[in-house]
Each structure stands twice: as C-alpha cells, then as structure tokens.
Amino acid sequence: MFSQVDMTTNHTYCASRREALLAAIPNNSVVVVSAAPEVIRSRDTDFPFRQDSDFYYLTHFPEPEALLLLQKDELGQCSQQLFCRDKDELAEVWHGRRFGHAQASQLFGIVATSFSGLDEALLQALNQKTYLYVAQGLYQALDEKLFAVLANLRAQPKKGYVAPTHLVDLRPVIAELRLFKDEFEVKLMQSAGLISAKAHQRAMLRCTSLQFEYQLEAEIRHEFAMQGARHCAYNTIVGAGENGCILHYTDNDAALKNGDLVLIDAGCELQGYAADITRTFPINGKFTAEQAAIYQLVLDAQLAACAQVKPGNTSKDTLDAAVAVLTLGLLELGILQGDFESLVAELACKKYFIHGLGHWLGLDVHDVGAYKIAGKERPFAPGMVLTIEPGLYIPKGSACDEKWWGIAVRIEDDLLVIKDGHLNLTDTAPKTISAIEALMAQGEKIAN
Ligand code: GLY
Ligand code: MN
Ligand code: MN
C-alpha cells in the first residue's frame, strides 16, 4: 500500500511555491486565495469536501473556511498569512476536528490567524495596493467580501483609504507554476499512477465473474482504497459495448455482455493529485478479430504519439503521429476510403476519433496551464505531465461495414516529460493484446 504522506510535513514545497508566486507579481500587490466552500448534496448532507486546487497547491491546508493572503509592498517586501477557523469543541464533536490557528501555524509553516479577523485584515491589506490578484467569479462569498472591502476603501478617501486600481486574474499566474511539477508532486503522481494501474489490473482479473458495469467500478474503487487513495480523480467511466462510444458515460448500470468490449476510464486522486488511465478489454477475456484489429490500431497510434513526447516537441507532433497511424489503419481496414494524404489533410479519422489527444494532468484531471503561447503550440519541457489518449468509436449505423459497429476503444496513459524524453507513469496497466488476454485468463482460473 502507498503510505500516506503526512500533508503537514511537506509545507516547505508550499513555501517555495508561494515564493515563486510572489516573485512573479509586481510590487505593491496583494493576493487572495480562498479555500473551497462545502457543497450541499441534499438537504443537510454535503458532498465529500474537496479543497480548492490552487489553495491546496499553495498551503496544503485541508479545511474549508480558510484564506491565504499574500502581500508584496512597494519595496518588494513580502508577508504571508493564513486565516482559518477557530477551534470549536461543539462543532468538532459533531463534524470533525479543526486545526485552529495555533496548531495550523505550527504545522503548515505559515502564520495562521482566526478567520474572524479577516474583514479588517483585508481592509488593511488592500488599502493603497495597486494590484489585487484574485480568482474573481469563482466563489460568490469571496467576491462579495472583496467587493465590500473595495467599496469601503473607495467610500472613505478622507481616512487615507485608496482601493487597488487593477483587479488581476490570479489563475493564469498560478497555472503557469502548477504546469511544472516539483519533486514532491512527481512522487505523488507516480504513486497515483501505480495505484490506478493496479485498479485496472484488478478490473481485468475480476471481469469475467461480474455481471454489471457498476461492479467493475466497485473493483476499481476497492483497489484505490486498499492502496491508500480514498477518492477518484473524476467519476469513473465503465462503458460496456456501445456505451464505450459515450465519451463521459458514467451511468455504469448496464449488463456486461459476453462478446463485447468494456472501456474503463478511471484514476485515483492521491493527496490531491490525479491519475487518468483508460483501458479497453474484452468482457469474456478474448478479443474477436474485429475488436483486435481496432484495438491494435489504437495502441499503435498511442505508442506513436507517446514517442513524440519529449522536450522541444509540441502536442501537434503527438497529434500528427496519431493521425497518420489511425488514418493508414482505417484505410487498410476499409473503414475509410480515399487517398491517404488527402485523408490526413482533412483529418478524416476524426469521424471516429472524436476528442482531443490529451491534456495536462496534476491537481485537476484536466489540469491548468496554457496550451499555446502567443498563439503557437507550446513545446514540452521537463516537469510537465500530460495524458496521451487516442480512441476510435464506431457506433451502430456508422458508414462502414457493420462488423465494426459497437466497437469503442480508448487507451490512455500519463506521461511525465523529462530531460531525455518522458516517463510513462501508468504503463504497469497492461495494454498489449497478449498481456490483457494472459491476465484475464489468470482471472478466469481464479474465478473457477
Ligand atoms: N477521464 C477524462 C479524460 O480522460 O480526459
Ligand atoms: Mn484524460
Ligand atoms: Mn481519462
């Protein structure tokens, strides 16, 4: 099992990230980052609390009703403050422990103060600053609080109050930092990848003895938890047969039918960090000839795209590689007809490969970070983590021989860009036809 890292012992990484953020903004700025609010699921029950990714990145502080306030004065001198809930015996008996500001200061390496003093602290911090950096429009309660403070400053010039003149979106500044993972993040993402790959192995092993998609989902969640990851990074997709053609299918309530493929897109969240893996395999453990042909084509495209993930290359290089393989393969199988060059030029394969090839990965499954700089594809660089996930989806009624209908295949891995190329963080989840069939045959033996 992955041993849980105590999130309070790694605050030095958060301190470096706050330093980097402060270095990236001009003098006479104030930065406000809010914890996520709790969200009601129904009546008086909440969804499991998930911390705001930017707030977590900068603090590791896990509670709601908290706020990070960073200041950089005219001379570039900086100060940092965390506001959090007070200890509260009664609330803690009902709802769970709270750090309180004294303990938070000790454990998170940043001066923590009671949330009750926040309004006055914001007034003082914003007064006479030029720039206010905040993710405006994200949390209504924060917007309201800040606009009240700004109104207060504007209303009382005789007191010497001056409101910031520039309201700047904080998100792109933090996004640029988050795009490049530090050593602590890389370790977590490697572990998240390994755990998620184990879960896919478990699903393959157990599949032949299961009846419904949601039972495969349960196997995935079981393995996540047994390996130390309590949460999924996103809602697990288990699409059997033609359900695999629905890209974000999460009903997961259909029967598993002998002879069909099943597509599972599932990744755990480990201390905030996401893995994102898709594997597709035959429910009965053996690919049919048609399933194998489409599967091998997607795998070849995935391998060709992965080979392009190295510093200096761009996502266009990965897409070009995948499109060339998919187009040629679809032509050879008779699913597309025409001239190879023209089909590539018009991206004809996108009829069956209907989504993007990948995305940044990190604290969010579709992680932050600009894909283009000044309108141009951004080159890969060490520390970036991205997915490569080609797929082919051939629903009933497609304009091809009906022997292909109902086949949906996606294969997705998570790649860390390193100096000499990339590391695949998720390749312990089997993906060759022979490896999948061998693992599933083992599973069948255990079941019988
Ligand atoms: N799991 C969502 C995606 O692959 O992008
Ligand atoms: Mn993905
Ligand atoms: Mn995915």
Tally of distinct domains: 2
Report the span from N to C terminus: 28 Å
- Which geometry do the CA atoms define? globular
CATH architecture of the largest domain: Alpha-Beta Complex
Helix content: 25-40%
At CATH level 3, the topology of the largest domain is Creatine Amidinohydrolase
* CATH level 1 name of the largest domain: Alpha Beta
- Spatial strand order of the main sheet: 6-5-4-1-7-8
Q: Strand share of the residues?
A: 15-25%
Task: Characterise the protein shown here.
- The structure is a single chain.
- The protein has 448 residues and is an alpha+beta fold.
- It folds into two domains: 7-178, Creatinase/prolidase N-terminal domain (Creatine Amidinohydrolase, Chain A, domain 1), CATH 3.40.350.10; 183-447, Creatinase/methionine aminopeptidase superfamily (Creatine Amidinohydrolase).
- It has helices spanning 11-24, 53-59, 89-95, 100-108, 118-126, 140-155, 171-178, 183-206, 213-226, 289-307, 315-332, 340-345, 433-447, and strands at 29-34, 40-42, 45-46, 67-72, 78-84, 112-114, 131-134, 166-169, 231-232, 237-240, 261-266, 268-270, 273-274, 277-282, 372-373, 376-377, 385-388, 391-394, 407-410, 413-418, 421-424.
- The chain is globular.
- The strands form seven sheets. The protein has a six-stranded mixed β-sheet with strand order 6-5-4-1-7-8, with helices on both faces.
- The structure holds glycine and manganese (II) ion (2 copies).
- Residues 276, 359, 387, 389, 412 line the site of one manganese (II) ion.
